[in-house]
């Protein structure tokens, strides 16, 4: 199969983006892993596939695959790249787009500044819906990480996140704890593990060990999850600047029951073609 794609990134969280509106695409987990492979394929944290809308009132559907081949519900940096992609490819002239994802409809908007703002939907804290195994709905919950007690906030931004507060994000145990939290038995769908340093009430520094991809330079849904966790823990006040290893995002949230707004860049690196076995 011959495939045209674009290589894009949002703050260094990188994507192979495929137009499945104008070309026939048949993906398997093996093909996703091959495309994501940084040595034998193109290389990316996630693969994004743009498809025609499957329901009335939305413009497109977009699907997200982690580098490990698994399909997931949501991707914040990907949502910003998706909008730039459909514009650059001439798939639409609309600047505000409603797009169907595995976890519902989100609404990204291409700003005059070139940045993209995305209504990422309403965060969910109910443990069963994250999903997180717990009989308490406390905002801060204890988690035993291979004998180390960790205090996390479990939240879904469409996809699951476990956010902990650390004193110094540069020295945080991301590589050691990340895979243990990702695969913790209390997160039956696995989880993205966030490590947040609070700089002041409007600024955090964040690293995320992503489910199915490992530590990335930035995670959009991770930034949303960290900010809502920080606001619920009364450590932060909206809006919050989130400093990641790949750059900065702005996150705004008016409180429980309200949607999270994320603003940041989306960049096209190059376009390419590849032959898939
Ligand atoms: N990098 C993304 C999140 C991608 C999906 C995540 N790894 C998961 O498995 O839920 C973002 O920017 O949000």
TrEMBL record:
<comment type="subunit">
    <text>Homodimer.</text>
</comment>
<feature type="binding site">
    <location>
        <begin position="210"/>
        <end position="211"/>
    </location>
    <ligand>
        <name>substrate</name>
    </ligand>
</feature>
<comment type="pathway">
    <text>Amino-acid biosynthesis; L-lysine biosynthesis via DAP pathway; DL-2,6-diaminopimelate from LL-2,6-diaminopimelate: step 1/1.</text>
</comment>
<feature type="binding site">
    <location>
        <position position="13"/>
    </location>
    <ligand>
        <name>substrate</name>
    </ligand>
</feature>
<feature type="binding site">
    <location>
        <position position="159"/>
    </location>
    <ligand>
        <name>substrate</name>
    </ligand>
</feature>
<feature type="active site" description="Proton acceptor">
    <location>
        <position position="219"/>
    </location>
</feature>
<feature type="binding site">
    <location>
        <position position="192"/>
    </location>
    <ligand>
        <name>substrate</name>
    </ligand>
</feature>
<dbReference type="InterPro" id="IPR001653">
    <property type="entry name" value="DAP_epimerase_DapF"/>
</dbReference>
<dbReference type="GO" id="GO:0009089">
    <property type="term" value="P:lysine biosynthetic process via diaminopimelate"/>
</dbReference>
<feature type="binding site">
    <location>
        <position position="46"/>
    </location>
    <ligand>
        <name>substrate</name>
    </ligand>
</feature>
<keyword id="KW-0413">Isomerase</keyword>
<protein>
    <recommendedName>
        <fullName>Diaminopimelate epimerase</fullName>
        <ecNumber>5.1.1.7</ecNumber>
    </recommendedName>
</protein>
<feature type="active site" description="Proton donor">
    <location>
        <position position="75"/>
    </location>
</feature>
<feature type="binding site">
    <location>
        <position position="66"/>
    </location>
    <ligand>
        <name>substrate</name>
    </ligand>
</feature>
<dbReference type="GO" id="GO:0008837">
    <property type="term" value="F:diaminopimelate epimerase activity"/>
</dbReference>
<feature type="binding site">
    <location>
        <begin position="220"/>
        <end position="221"/>
    </location>
    <ligand>
        <name>substrate</name>
    </ligand>
</feature>
<dbReference type="Pfam" id="PF01678">
    <property type="entry name" value="DAP_epimerase"/>
</dbReference>
<feature type="site" description="Could be important to modulate the pK values of the two catalytic cysteine residues">
    <location>
        <position position="210"/>
    </location>
</feature>
<feature type="site" description="Could be important to modulate the pK values of the two catalytic cysteine residues">
    <location>
        <position position="161"/>
    </location>
</feature>
<comment type="similarity">
    <text>Belongs to the diaminopimelate epimerase family.</text>
</comment>
<keyword id="KW-0963">Cytoplasm</keyword>
<feature type="binding site">
    <location>
        <begin position="76"/>
        <end position="77"/>
    </location>
    <ligand>
        <name>substrate</name>
    </ligand>
</feature>
<comment type="function">
    <text>Catalyzes the stereoinversion of LL-2,6-diaminopimelate (L,L-DAP) to meso-diaminopimelate (meso-DAP), a precursor of L-lysine and an essential component of the bacterial peptidoglycan.</text>
</comment>
<keyword id="KW-0028">Amino-acid biosynthesis</keyword>
<keyword id="KW-0457">Lysine biosynthesis</keyword>
<feature type="active site">
    <location>
        <position position="75"/>
    </location>
</feature>
<dbReference type="GO" id="GO:0005829">
    <property type="term" value="C:cytosol"/>
</dbReference>
<dbReference type="InterPro" id="IPR018510">
    <property type="entry name" value="DAP_epimerase_AS"/>
</dbReference>
């Amino acid at each position: 199969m011959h495939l045209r794609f674009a290589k894009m990134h949002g703050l260094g969280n990188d994507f192979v983006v495929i137009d499945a509106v104008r070309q026939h695409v048949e993906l398997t987990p093996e093909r996703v892993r091959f495309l994501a492979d940084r040595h034998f394929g193109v290389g990316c944290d996630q693969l994004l596939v743009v498809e025609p809308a499957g329901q009335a009132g939305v413009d497109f559907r977009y699907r997200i695959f982690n580098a490990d081949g698994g399909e997931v519900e949501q991707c914040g940096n990907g949502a910003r790249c998706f909008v730039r992609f459909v514009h650059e490819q001439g798939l639409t002239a609309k600047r505000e787009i409603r797009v169907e994802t595995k976890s519902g409809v989100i609404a990204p908007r291409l700003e005059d500044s070139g940045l993209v703002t995305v209504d990422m939907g309403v965060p969910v804290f109910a443990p069963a819906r994250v999903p997180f195994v717990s009989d308490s709905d406390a905002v801060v919950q204890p988690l035993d990480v291979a004998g180390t007690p960790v205090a996390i906030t479990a939240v879904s931004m469409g996809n699951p996140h476990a956010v902990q507060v650390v004193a110094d994000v540069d020295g945080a145990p991301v590589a050691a704890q990340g895979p243990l939290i990702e695969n913790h038995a209390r997160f039956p769908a696995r989880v993205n593990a966030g490590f947040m340093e609070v700089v002041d009430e409007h600024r955090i520094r964040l690293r995320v060990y992503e489910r199915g991809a490992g530590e990335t330079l930035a995670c959009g849904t991770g930034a949303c999850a960290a900010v809502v966790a920080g606001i619920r823990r009364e450590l932060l006040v909206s809006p919050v600047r989130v400093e990641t290893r790949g750059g900065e995002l702005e996150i705004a949230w008016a409180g429980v029951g309200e949607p999270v707004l994320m603003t940041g860049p989306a960049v096209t690196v190059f376009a390419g073609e590849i032959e898939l076995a």
